[in-house]
Design goal:
heterodimer, A: alpha/beta, nine-stranded mixed β-sheet, three-stranded mixed β-sheet, globular, B: mainly alpha, MetI-like fold, 2 domains, about 70% helix
């Protein structure tokens, strides 16, 4: 029979586990508070705008010691929604902010700051290009999208099924494509194709699949693994996605590249935006294959 | 040795079901109840939040075949089928290999080697799933595309690719837990079997496996749980094609076509 003065007794395991849980709670609280650091500039959005933005962030990090995080979750629509939810200070988009988006976030004043121009190209894999398919018309693309043309031989190529990798609807690239085909992305019919997410995934999958077709930012088509088709217009002229055709808008699927902010950009966001609009930033835009603003004015 | 933690409770507390005589017991009870409460509240929250969907769609939500969200048509059957097929392929691949390797490490390897192998395999279980997904895009996709060329695959993104990738992912889980189950069989049983003249193989199968089948079943269940819930690896290689439901549920053709699973739909 043991005499106890206390109802509890401090055995070793109890002490250790108690101490550990206190320590964990303390660390968690510290981490939580540290993450609320307001100095980090968060940027999220389109995989198309990402390369120059990420490099600009790298330069600003090393030169000015700014803390910048660039991410590509969800593409253009991810950038818009995260800016609307207040999770990021700058959104990247390769499409316009639609009325529906503005209506969804009534308190947010979406400002579109254009930093460059890009075009959406329809890219094909090497075997299709070598088989002779070099251009496509709007009518043919509509037929492919709606499933009426299923084989490359109907487009002048070899006898191979078309492996169409549709971009996720909501991506800037897809919206531009749907806008070109149907005038309004909402009028696009429901389809069930294989889907790809960002530009990197699209290029990767097209390069490794025979008979593949996908929408891709034109500067990402390197001409070695994936090849961009020209567009055959109604009058028969064949327009290839060169810089000149994109700048003069002869190529139909050109789209502006935007940095989005809520109201006027302030503090770090302003620094970033001004850098990307400066001569050095625009050189970055050109370096990654897009058109800078001065090339548009030509 | 005066073991103060295991002495009997004083008479006044003996009838009470929960007698907090130590911090350990208090902490154990508290955290167990917390886990249970968390699980129940999560299930309840999901049920509550999904009520509008059930009210609007009814049972057609899970039996409908077409999913077109822009046209407000929601039928998740194709995705449920995709999840089921992918998990089945994964289990069919991982179960024999995992149980067989567990048999090997327990019955044939000496103890120190067994622990070494087990530790290495458990390390594999800790690899993030996005790494598996990227390896799937880089290698597995191309191997399946080239390997099954005579079936004229549209691309390397198929339900089979996702199934094989998942099988590789859950293999360490199956192996480790089966190993634990097999080791739990009393060595006296094995010694008795050997004494009666059974060979090593017979001992392993008719004594080891037979006695631990419940533990192995648990291992398979846990592995299936992981396979059902795996998102990012499946997301990257399954093709993400909606409405890919075949006419015949048991057709093998569906395996070499792209598909969609519940988790890959949620993931992107």
């Amino acid at each position: 029979m043991q005499f106890r003065s206390l109802p509890f007794h401090f055995n070793r395991i109890g002490r250790i586990s108690f101490a550990l849980s206190i320590a964990t709670a303390f660390l968690a609280a510290t981490a939580f508070l540290a993450n609320g650091h307001c100095d980090t500039l968060r940027i999220n959005g389109s995989t198309t705008v990402n390369p120059p933005a990420a490099e600009a962030a790298e330069i600003l990090r090393s030169e000015k010691g700014m803390q910048i995080e660039v991410d590509t979750q969800g593409g253009s629509s991810g950038g818009i929604s995260m800016l609307g939810d207040g999770l990021v200070q700058i959104g990247m988009a390769s499409k316009q902010v639609s009325e529906a988006d503005r209506a969804k976030y009534p308190k947010v004043d979406f400002r579109e700051i254009q930093v460059g121009e890009d075009a959406v190209a329809l890219v094909v894999s090497k075997d299709v290009w070598d088989a002779g398919v070099r251009s496509i018309s709007q009518k043919q693309m509509r037929a492919v999208y709606e499933g009426r043309i299923k084989n490359w031989k109907d487009l002048g190529g070899a006898d191979k099924r078309i492996a169409f990798f549709n971009k996720e609807p909501g991506r800037g690239t897809w919206e531009v494509f749907a806008h070109w085909l149907y005038g309004d992305s909402k009028k696009a019919p429901p389809v069930s194709f294989l889907e790809v997410g960002g530009n990197e995934e699209a290029r990767n999958k097209v390069a490794s699949t025979r008979g593949a077709l996908a929408q891709l930012s034109s500067s990402w088509a390197d001409g070695k693994r994936v090849f961009s088709l020209s567009i055959t217009l109604e009058d028969g002229s064949i327009i290839s996605p060169t810089n000149k055709n994109i700048a003069t808008h002869r190529y139909p699927m050109s789209r502006p590249l935007f940095l989005l902010t809520n109201g006027d950009p302030k503090a770090e966001a302003k620094t970033f935006v001004e850098f990307l609009l400066s001569e050095r930033g625009q050189a970055l835009v050109r370096k990654h294959g897009y058109l800078s603003l001065d090339q548009l004015r030509e | 040795m005066a073991d103060t933690e295991h002495s009997p409770a004083p008479p006044s507390l003996r009838k009470v079901a929960f007698s907090p005589r130590s911090w350990t017991r208090l902490a154990s009870f508290a955290f167990s109840l917390l886990t249970l409460a968390f699980l129940c509240s999560m299930v309840g929250l999901f049920a509550w939040q999904s009520l509008p969907v059930w009210k609007q769609e009814g049972i057609g939500y899970v039996t409908g075949e077409k999913w077109y969200f822009r046209q407000q048509e929601f039928g998740a059957l194709a995705m449920i089928y995709g999840t089921f097929v992918v998990s089945l392929v994964a289990l069919l691949l991982a179960a024999p290999v995992g149980v067989a390797s567990a048999l090997f490490t327990v019955e044939i390897l000496p103890a120190h080697l067994r622990l070494l192998v087990k530790a290495t395999v458990e390390l594999l279980a800790g690899v993030p799933s996005v790494v598996y997904g990227l390896l799937g895009i880089l290698f597995l996709r191309n191997w399946i595309y080239i390997g099954l060329e005579r079936f004229d695959l549209l691309s390397g993104d198929t339900l089979l690719t996702a199934g094989i990738l998942l099988g590789i992912m859950i293999l360490p889980t199956v192996m480790t837990l089966s190993d634990d189950a097999l080791v739990g069989v009393a060595s006296a049983q094995r010694l008795a079997a050997r004494a009666l003249g059974l060979t090593r193989a017979e001992t392993g199968i008719f004594v080891g496996l037979a006695q631990s089948w419940r533990g192995i079943l648990t291992a398979l269940l846990l592995a299936m749980g992981r396979a059902l819930g795996e998102t990012i690896a499946v997301f990257l290689v399954v093709g993400r094609r909606d409405n890919a439901l075949p006419e015949n549920f048991f057709s093998l053709q569906a395996l070499i076509e792209a598909g969609q699973t519940l988790t890959s739909k949620l993931g992107g």
